[in-house]
Here is the input.
Amino acid sequence: MPCLFLFIALFITSSALAENSMAPGIVRDINQIDEKKLTGFAIPYVFYSESLALTAGVGGGVTGLQKGQAGLYGTVFTSTNSSTAAYFLGTNLKLPLGERIFADPILSAGWFAKERDYISGNPNFANKQAASNDSDPEDFIESSGHDNWAELKLKYILPMGHSRESAISIYKVDRGVLESGATGGGEWQPLKNSITFLQIKPFYRYRSFEFTSKEEAKSTNGVEFAVVHDNSDFPQNPSSGSSQRFKVARDFGWFNSMHSWTVIKGDFSKYFSLGETEKFRQRVVALNLWVSDNISSDSANTPEGVVFSHRAPSYMGSSLGGFYRLRGYPQNRFSDKTAVYYGAEVRLIPDWNPLRSVSFLNFFDIDWIQLVGILEAGRVDDSWSSETFYSDLHWDAGIGIRLMTRKIVGRFDMAFSEEGVTSWVMVGQAF
Here is the structure.
C-alpha cells in the first residue's frame, strides 16, 4: 500500500501533481539527532486499472537533498495495452540565485492506449456542449494518443512572518503529529506569522488523439503567476489556521493567436482542530472554497453548435471532477467558463496504527493512518450570477484513508456521486 501511494500517484495523471505547491520545509522526528538525512530508494510495482490494464514499472527517488528540504523522484512503466510513460518530479530544489528561490520541476512523456477527454466531438452528441453542467456523462471522446507535459515552478519565499529569518521551515513531529515549529495556525497576521511566497510557473502540454480516420493534436504553453499565503500550522497536514492562493494563468498564443487564453483562480481553506480524545490523536475539520474564471473565453452559435474561442483546455481552466474537486466524478468531468467548488472533510488520526508494527513495512516509516469523511458540491457555468453559487450543484460524498509514510502524506479517496463511484490515489491532502 505505501509504495502504491508514492509511485502510482506519480503517473496516474501528471496534471494532478501540478495542483499546489508548498514552501520548503524539513520534517523531523522529535528524537532525530541528525540535521540532514539523505535517503535513496527504488521500488518495483504492479497494478491493474481500466485505462492502463495490467501495468508494471519501477519508481524511486532521493529525499533529504541540499539542506534536507529537497527531493527528486521518478518512475517509468509499461502496460499490457502498450501504454508507456516516464515521469520526473523535483521538489523544493534551491537554485543558486539566492537563499529564497526554489524550484519544482516536472517532466512527463507518454503514449496511452486509452485517453479520455470531455470535449465535443462524439458523433452521438452532435450540437451538444460536452462537459457543461448539464452535459451527458457519455459525451466524451476516447482514443489512443500522446500526452507530454512540462512545467517549472519557481518560488520566492518572502522575508516576512515566520520566514523572516529563514526560507526553510523546520517542523518537529511525534509519530507524524506536529509537536513544535508551527508556521501558522493563530491569528491572520502576515507580517508576524505564517508563510507567504510568490510563484511563477512556465508550462507546456501536448496531447494527441489518434482516431481511425484522423489524428487530432492540441497543445498549450504559457505562464502562471501565483501569490500564496499559508497560515496553517503544518502545511503537509494542517490542523488549524488557513491558507489562501490566488493564481493567474495565461497562454499568450505565441503559435496561434486564436488559442490564447487567461484564467484566474482563488483557493481558500480553513482548518479547525477538535482536539484529542482517548482514541484519536488528532481530529480536524477542513473546509475549502475554490472559484475559477476563464475571463478570456468567448463563444458563438453556429449551425454545427456552439464554437468557443480563447478558452483554456479543461486541465488548466475552470473544471471539476478528479483528484481534488468532486472526486465522485471522472477527471475534468465538468468544464466551462466559470466554476465554483465547496469541500469539507473530517480528518481523524487514531492512536491505533497496526502498520507500524509490521516488520516488512518498516522501510516506509508509517507514522499514522488517517480516516477521512468527504462531502463536496460544485458546478460550472457559462457566466457568473448569484445562482452559480447555489443552483444545480453537483455533489458527492465519500471516505478516504491517508498515510504519512516517510514524512509524505499519501491518500486513497473513494467518492459516490449520481454518476457512480470513483476512487483516486494521490500524494498530499486534497486541500
About this structure: The longest helix spans residues 2-11. Residues 189 and 367 are 31 Å apart (CA to CA).
